Each structure stands twice: as structure tokens, then as C-alpha cells.
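Go through this:
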Amino acid sequence: MARVTAPKGSTKGPAVVSPSLSAVSAAVAAEPLGIGSAGARDPLATEVRLLGALLGQVISEQAGPDLFATVERIRRRTIALRRDDDAHGWARLDEELRALDLDAVEAVITAFALYFGLVNLAEARGRVRTLRRRERAARDGILEDSVADAIAGLRRLGRTDAELDALIGRLAVGPVLTAHPTEARRRTTLVALRRCAVLLARLDDPRLTPSEDREIRRRLREEITVLWRTSDLRIVSPTPLDEVRTAMAFFDATLFTVVPRLYRALDAALDPSSGRAPGPASDSGRTGTRPPRVGPFLQPGSWVGGDRDGNPGVTAEITTRTLRIQADHVLRGYEAVATRLMQTIAVAVPGDRVARTLVSRLARDAEDLPETDRQLRRRFPDEPYRQRFGFIAERLRRTRAALVGEPAPLTGRYESAHDLDTELAEISDALVADGLERIAWGEVAELRWQVETFGFHLASLEVRQHSAVHAAALAAVRAGAPSTTELAPGVTLDEVLATFRAIAAAQARFGREVCHRYVVSFTSTTTDVTDVLELARLALEGDAADPPILDVVPLFESSEALDRAGTILGALLDDPAYRAGIAARGDRQEVMLGYSDSNKESGFLAAAWMLHQAQSALVAAARLRGVELTLFHGRGGALGRGGGPTNRAILGQAPGSVDGRLRLTEQGEVISANYSDPTIARRHLEQMTGAILLASAPEHDARLERALAVARPIMDELAATARVAYRALVHDDPAFASFFRDITPIRELSDLRLGSRPAARGRRDEAPTIDSLRAIPWTFAWSQSRINLPGWYGLGHALEAYRAADGEAGLDALARLARDWPFLSSLLDNAEMSLAKADMGVARLYARLATGPGDDRRWDAIETEYRRTVSLLGRVTGRARLLDGAPVLQRSVALRNPYVDSLSELQVRLLARLRALAPDDPERQRVLRLVQLTVNGVAAGLQSTG
């Protein structure tokens, strides 16, 4: 934000003592959180009160007590209006807001937005505490939805150790990070909030002295002051490489260290004594005292720096530089671990007892790295393990320099991650021979897990491009067109061919795993897949290098393509030339399903059922031809784009579609939510892994098949009705696009610079249509106006029509089906969440911005469908109010609403003011900036973007 400071003549005294932004006195800012305080009873409430008090002090210091008092009055009035919706209260709020000048408006927006950022930190801390408390209180020490819980469940189904080992042996969990622009906050803000989170966590320590406690609070005030003066808007759009570096921040903070903890948790769950309270020293057979039974099953992927669909800024050069950045981060991580092990495994071994493999390796090390050898022999003369890890650290340093393009010696480098793992295996065997099994199967095993998971490339970089671009490229090559021919806005023929050359070069440098998946957007025919292989061949025709080895992944996302997905896959696998290619790679095929565009095209309910049916058809097509199928789910963070609890979604997938393997996208704010904190990151990955294990059980598939036998005709009817209703509103009405642009801040969102990719496909100078608009800004805009239409519209129509045909007994049957069928249960719960976060009272304010012919009718249709859906959904779920089944979430939404209301009220006023200004009005940019600040604040308050 602009640098808001106390106005001239203001009196900066002590912080205001009246209730602050979180209804506390300034004394709370100095109140200890230790044992015996309110924090011992409700630490989350105490932390929220503390952060609110500290923010109140900062506002008073930086913007003056008068501004702070204004913020407080607005806060109290919106809370009162939530309790008592009276006209007099609205008039007073209107008078209060109307009196604010633009400087005051900016300060008020910043106050509420920053409050939400701090509260979100406290809630994340509260989640960590809750997880630890539940695990301590759990029977047998097994936390619900953990990998240990999944293994216990499989054992109850009668699985033997051999069967569990076989299942885990084929387990493949593939989270794929994407750069989809759904994170409204700047990386600068995220990092600053992370510093606050670290300080907040330290206040949990009951051993803190009063002086230490005061120092942490002082530093929190300092960080909050910096956040107050930090612009929450990006001055320029992030480049693709900016997005790569943001993704690397999460790798450094959590993923690298969490992966071995995840594997250790699953390995421990396989012990016969898993879940029992820790016993005495006799823990023979437990993890860390035996060879690990769990191999590396996490297969991280990334689209960041590889996804060029609609983003001409992602070029072959960007992809190459992305791979170097990834290699730099992961090799620095290995080097740090090797250096630490060099310091810690200080085991003295007489020269005549050193394992022969170590003697041989040390001799080769001395030959390749003589200077390092002299240093290590001087420091650790009788400690061969320290010497070996010292050499490994130096070899990693040299390998990193060579791979990232820095000057590096020609000798003393690793050719591949496999070479490094071979050396670690030799060290492990030597440690076991020396009676040091705990070390071999402890930290050394964990480093091996990391190397086997991340290699020298960190994550497999995936390339994505639109099928129409490939068709145009192939046609241009066959026609002999010049390399500068433009195939799509900003995309030339030369660039398309250069991408394949870059992939081939990367595979030669790092190995095939670095970049081998090529995702084809909007696949609708088999040629959309085979075109890619033909282009790869043509791109390197005449070169000495071989074409890249590619796994082409068709992405089905339109309703027509989803309906025909099984047929298209079958025809592709029946193509002799194509089948020969995948046979050489183990008869494996991956297919991606797009949740976002299918929802925008057909609506929430119809799209969900369409995707489920496509899964069944794809499984049948692959199984008939003896091909191992992996489904890749392109889920968004928002409920209207396939979001919601991941583990529940996995358990609701079509029968046979999991079988130990699943990949899914992690986008934008979801990455931040899942991977900012190590405990939450591990919990997320454990839930995902546990759900995949359970969904792979034949008994689970049989349960789904029984439910589907009843559900198919019901879902066909519900989906068809919902789709007709949705399309009648959104697609069949030519004026709906104009209504949408008026009732939401979509035009203002497009200038928010959330990511490097444009908000709509096509040329930037063309007004986007509903069809050309990307699903992320479509969903984001609806959430800002508090309507959340993509997450529920059409469900009410479907339930009403079903009741009309089958009576109340029909709804009773649906309720029973939801209890027995995870797919429907998850679907209805997600709709309920979307409805709970919507607010028709606030949305009516946005509806007033739409004044075109028929706009009243359009709004009436939306509001009527909302009431219909809430009523009939409650009838099916048996809950009187939304989220009655999730009281913690219900309370969080209720407590946040008044604060979000304040920002929504300001956003509506600013939108009206902005749209009334002439294009050349000098005030326009200032007002647009304020609108965008409210967007960030509302997104933080709702914890939702696109």
C-alpha cells in the first residue's frame, strides 16, 4: 500500500486502550501465553487477540489514533449488522464510509486485509496444535487419516505383510505444482508472514523467560510494521522465472525435509507394534533398526516454467533455465545434508577394519580430489565415514556448478543421481557391517530417500501446450512455412520446435526423468496426441541428437471430449505405432482430466458426474488392452474448480481408477496453504497417501460398484437437469457475459498481475467472452462478489426436479446414497461449503452494479436458485443450517464474515466510482488500485481465490 503515516498534527501516544481490531485492550499485547494464561485454555483465541492488539498498536503509531478509531467503528457496525439487519444501522455505516477520503479508505482496507493475513497465520498454528493434540489422544497413537490409519484399515481387511509390501511397491503419489495465478499475495508478503509465523510458534514454548517473551513480541510488532508499509500489490506482473523461484521457496521450506518424514511414517506403520506407546529399549524390528520396507513413492512434478498453454512468456529458454534453478536448489540441499553427516558420523575405525568398498572409494576420491583429500585426512585421520561424506559434499558442489552452467572442474563430479545413491548404499552397507545399523537405516537412509525422490532435477518438469498450436505447427512445417510463422498470439513455429530441442537437451544433461511428460490441452482426437510425437521427430531431424523420449498426456476437459474419452484412448492404444512406443516403456499411459473448464462449460454437478464417468470409461479402455493407466486430476483450489478435501475426493474416484497411482495439480494459494508449514505439509501428504492406499483395496472398489449400481440413473437425471439450468443462465443468454462483467470485478482482476499468464485465451486487445475466459478468473470473480456461483448453481434445480418426479422418498434415497457413496458425499459437502461462503445479502450490493436490460431477472434467477439449493440440500443432508456438520469451520466463517463485509462494502463503492470515471480521468488509477487492494483483502478473508 502507499506509505500511510500519522497526519501532521496528530498525537502519537500509547496504543488505544479501547477494544482493538480483535476486541482486546492494548494490555493483551504484553500478556504472556505460557502455562496458566488464557493461552493454556484456548491458545488460538489468545493468539488472534494478541495479533489484533499488536496490529492495533501499529495502526495507531503509523496512521494515527483517529484512523484506528475509524477502523474500530466500521468493524463494530458490520458485526452489529450481522446480528441485527436494521435500516438505521446500514444508514450509519453508509454515512461512515461516505465520509472517508481515498487515503482513509486505503488505510481501512489495509487494516482489514492485514488482519486477515495475521489471523490466517494463527489458524494455521491452531491446526498444527490440533493435529498434535489428536495424535496424543488417539487410541494406539494412530491419527485419523494418517498413513498409519490407512495401514491399520488395510490390516483389518485382512492384508498380509506381503500384500502390503506389494501395494506399497507400486504406490505412486504425484503432486504437481503449477503456476496458475490463484495466489493473490506477493512473495514478499508471504515471506514476511512466514517470519511472523516462526515468531508466533516460539511463543508456544512454556520455557520462555519474561525477557524472551517481550523480545518476541517486540519483533512481531516490527514485522507487522513492515507489513503495514509493504505494498500488497505487484507493481509488475511476475515473470515465469519469478514463479519458479516462488515454487522453490516451498521446496526449501518444507518439501525437501518433509519427504523422508513421510516415508518414515509409512515405514513405521508397517511395524507389527505400530501405534503402540513407545516402549523400552527392546524395539527390534522397528523402523530405523532394520532396512526400510518403503521405497520412494512420491513423484513430484511441476508445470512452473513448462506450461506454455496461453502463456507465450514460457519459452524454450525459460524451460532450460527453470531446470537449472531446480537443480541448483536440490543439489544445495544434498550438499548441506552431506556436510551435516560429515560433522555428525564421527565414528573412528582402525585402518585394517575399514570396509573394502570404502577403501576403494577413498582411494578414487584422493585421485580425483587431492586438495580435498589433504584437508579431510588432516581433520579426520581415523574417521572414514566423515571423509567419505566430505568428498560427497565436494562432488555435489562441483556437480551443481556444472549442471547450472557455472565454471566447474572437469573431474570429481557425479554423472547422475544413481551414482550418488550407489555411494550412499556402499556407506550404508559398511555401517551395518560395523554394527551401526541405526545410522545406516536412520539419517543415511533418509538421504537416500531424498536422492531417489528428487534426483538431480528436484521435480519432473512437464510441458503443456494447446492441441491447436500443434496442429498449426505441423501444418506449417508440411507447407514449408518460415520459422517465424505465428501459430497463436506470441507463439511462432520456431518456438514450438525449439521446445522439443530443449527437452532433448535436458534429457541428455539430467536424464529422462527431468522432463518427459508432454500434456496436450483440449485433446479431442487421437491425432492431437500423435501430432506431438511427429513434431518432436521433425524438430530434431538432421541433428546428431535423438528426439526426446516423451510420454504424451492427453488432457480431456470439454464436455464432448470427456464423453468420448474412453473411445479416444481406445483408438490411440489400438494404433500400432503408438502402442509400440508405450510398450517400450512398460505399457503405461497417463491421462489428464480437466476440472476447471468442464465446470465453466457445464456447471458444478454435471461436470463432476461427467468426470466420474470419463474415469470409468478410461479404466475400461486401458484394462481391455492390458495397459497400466494413471489418471492425472487437474483440480483447482476453489470448490468450483474441483477443489475441496483431497483425501475425500480420492476415496470418491471411480472404481479401479486409483490402484496405487494418482497424480493431481496443486495450484496457487493451495500450494501456500499445504506447504508453508512442515507439519501441515506432512499431514497433507499423509492424507493423500493414505487415501490412495485405501482406494486401492478391492473391497473399496466393490463398495463403489454397489453404490454405482443404484446411483447411475439417479446421477444421469440430476446432472442433465443441472446442466440445462446452468447453461440456460450462463451460455444460452447472449447478455450474460455483460451481466457477469458488471456484477463482479472481473475487469479489475485482469489487471491485478497475479501471474505471468493472461486471464483469457486469445489476443489481449480483444474483450474476453465467457468461453475464452480462463476458469481461474471466472471462479475468482464470483468469489469476490460473494456469490460463488460455479460451486453450486444448478444443484437446486436438479434436486427440485428429482423431488417432483420421485417425491420426498426420492430425497430420502439420495440421503442414503450420500451416506454410502464417497463421491456423492464429497460432492454435496463441497456444495455446502461453497454456499456457506456465499452471502446473498452482500451479493445484492454487487447486483446493483448491473443495470442492463434483463439484469434484474438474471439476478433473481441466481438468488432464487441459492435459496432453493440451500433448502433442498439441507433436506438431503439432514442439517438445519449450512455447515452444522462442521462446527469449527462454521464458526470460522461466521467470525470472518463481518470483517469481509467491510471490505466488500468498500469494494462495491469503489467499483461504482471507478466505472463512472472517464478513461483519461487522473483519479482512475488510484481508484483501480484501491479496488485491487480490496480484492486481496477479500481473498485473504475468505481464504479463496480461483
About this structure: The chain is about 60% helix and 5% strand. The first strand starts at residue 172 and ends at 178. The radius of gyration is 29 Å. The longest helix spans residues 102-137.
